[in-house]
Amino acid sequence: MSAPVTRSASKRRSTKETDIEITLDLDGPTGAVEASTGLPFFDHMLDQIGRHGGFDLTVRATGDLHVDGHHTVEDTGILLGEVFREALGDKAGVRRFASGLYPLDEALVQIAVDLSGRPFSVIDLGIGEVLPLGDPPFNPEMADHFLQSFATAAGITLHLRKLEGTNTHHIIEASFKALARSLRDAVRVEGSAVPSTKGTLSA
Q1: What are phi and psi of 12, to 5 degrees?
Q2: What is the pTM of this model?
Q3: CA pair distance 68, 58, nearest whole angstrom
Q4: What single-letter DSSP state applies at residue 65?
Q5: 12, 24 in Cβ contact below 8 A?
Q6: Distance between CA atoms of residues 22 and 185, nearest Å
Q7: What is the pLDDT of residues 101-148, one digit of tens each?
Q8: Cα–Cα nearest to 65, from 57, 76, 73
């Protein structure tokens, strides 16, 4: 009897601006998350990805927060995408597609995901000039940038937009929950074949 395939990966990314380590298990039974980036609001959003995605996820990041949170958030998105892509492997048997509407109080977002192997994203959260969230501050504009960075590095197609919402925290949190639930559905194994007429879902 063959051993079960483990869909997990770990990576480290180190630059002059950030040092990040991420471990991800797509089939983590508990959605256990440990996120430490120096940005409490961002940690809270990463927690949504693990818990609502059903993934075991560890993110440890240090960055030049004395400049701002841009590099830390961007590089975390890049590395998480790379780890996600590696953990997926050849994507044999996965559902591939997922979509839905996700509310959080007055906020409502629409999402569609395709594990296509072709990186593309259209993100419109409709967030204008608003005050940063948390301390140290998380710039709400970086939510879009994180999602785009993740989609590109993961090699997925991601469409995400706000339909309703006025509270910035609610809009961003609904978006991260939507991503988590859609990824959870898309990576679910339903068979053994790669779901593509090309026979591959790589770029």
Answers
A1: -130, 140
A2: 0.92
A3: 22
A4: T
A5: no
A6: 22
A7: 999 999 999 999 999 999 999 999 998 778 899 999 999 999 999 999
A8: 73
